[in-house]
Design brief:
By secondary structure, this protein is α/β, with parallel strands linked by helices. The protein contains 17 helices and 13 strands. The protein has an 8-stranded parallel β-sheet, covered by helices on one side. The protein has a 3-stranded antiparallel β-sheet with strand order 4-6-5, with no helix packed on it. The chain has a two-stranded antiparallel ribbon with strand order 10-11. α6 packs across α9 and α13 runs parallel beside α17. The longest helix is centred in the middle third of the chain and has 17 residues. The chain starts with about 20 loop residues before the first strand and ends in a 5-residue tail after the last helix. About 45% of the residues are buried.
Length: about 525
Amino acid sequence: MAALPTPAAPPYRPRWWHDAVIYTVWVRSFADGNGDGIGDLLGLLSRLDALAWLGVDTLWLTPIHPSPNADFGYDVTDYCAIHPDFGTLADFDALVAELHRRGMRLVLDLVINHSSCDHPWFRAAERGKASYRAWYYWRDAPNDWEAIFGGSAWSWSETAQQYYLHLFLPQQPDLNWENPDVRAALAEVARFWLDRGVDGFRFDALTVLKKAPGLPSVAPTRREALRMATPEAEAPADTAVPPDTAVPPSPNSPLLPQPAWSHFLAQPGLEALFADFVRRAGLTRDHLTLGEANGLPVERAAPWIAEPDGLLSLLLHFELWHIDRPTAQGGATLDTVAFSESCVRWWQTARALGTRPALYLENHDLPRVVSRWADDRDPDATRRAAKAFAAAQLLQPAVPILYQGQELGLPNARLTHWAQIHDRAAEPTIAALRAKGETDSTILAALSRTGRDAVRTPYPWDATQPFGGFSAAPPWTPLPPEHLPLAWQQQYEDPHSTLHWYRHLIHRRRQRNQGVTP
């Protein structure tokens, strides 16, 4: 790797989150406190001492708001309430109080690019209510954009008799961030939770908030091209483009969905839209704010994270999503050169901007690191790999973000039954493999390697307890039997375990950051 210059860091006031160790909780699978088989806030509250013992000081909760669960909370119907599966606002207030009593902090996941199609905002827009119509994107005829989860990015609304835009699932209509009323409403949501003691937010799908002006097709039809090139008011009579007439979907539709990243990912003007939201919400650099930053290169980091006026604390870039190196056996391993170069590049940039980068290896969307970049079939190899990845993450000058179970060295769950498949985003993969004639066992094996269901299974707390100590009742999805030997209690009793290694590294890190020689 070519030597990179080390920039001198400008003077800046250290922020509390520069030394944070962030722990991501996918609440549904963390701990069940009321015995219904679903993880909840009371269950999380009962496990705070375990997290404090580990040394993490900030929790990021994936969405806990009411939702039909088309995308497990990333389709919100009420931004200012708690999903009944997870508890009540009183439970939430108790969680905040107990975290703060321990000197810990709380970050909430805010889904700001889209709502649920069952949200009152969208229902009002569907019915044509003028004050909400422009909160979403409507068209008489769709463009050719492909949704991130597959298929067309447009779905037909029988109520509205038009198409609406959804970059993810059809149940997740995109909010129109060009509309200041949308930004104001979402800022009110942020203020609601800040007033309840939240210490910051993780902003979902941040880099798709801004769409290309006019929502042009990737491969425009003649009519679209003519309309873009010649505004109707200026067109000669013989070339004027007739207005579209809303036509329901047809199997004979000429538009095939095209990958449209260049039309909605990290578009120019994104920073200005988000800056307006930050101002309205009253967010400051003393709040911890994380942005899911797919497609945002390090060269554009400055307006987002630079001291003293950056829009966010940390960017969750996607570079490490794309550094797998194929193996001769047809699998994948870590491209160590690409990993090192990415980490150095982001550290040098952040340091020059007076701050620190974020570093994560796992989350609720990614395979477990020991399954992705190591051999998870051998328990000893899995344990050694888990410890190596822990050191690679926790000993860097970056803000580490862990995902629940990472500290146990959990591998991906082995999915063997369709009852374990809940993620609708997996449906295009399943359909494509079935179209190729693959068997159910082959499809499930593929989902075990890359599917999100494989990393969202219940947390194993104690192998001697029913259901691994996760719940007193059968869990909402099975706890993988291969995870029981790695349960928290059993690792707690073993001073050489992966769990103790994570704790050791976190405490070494904290001593170093306090100026104490490890």
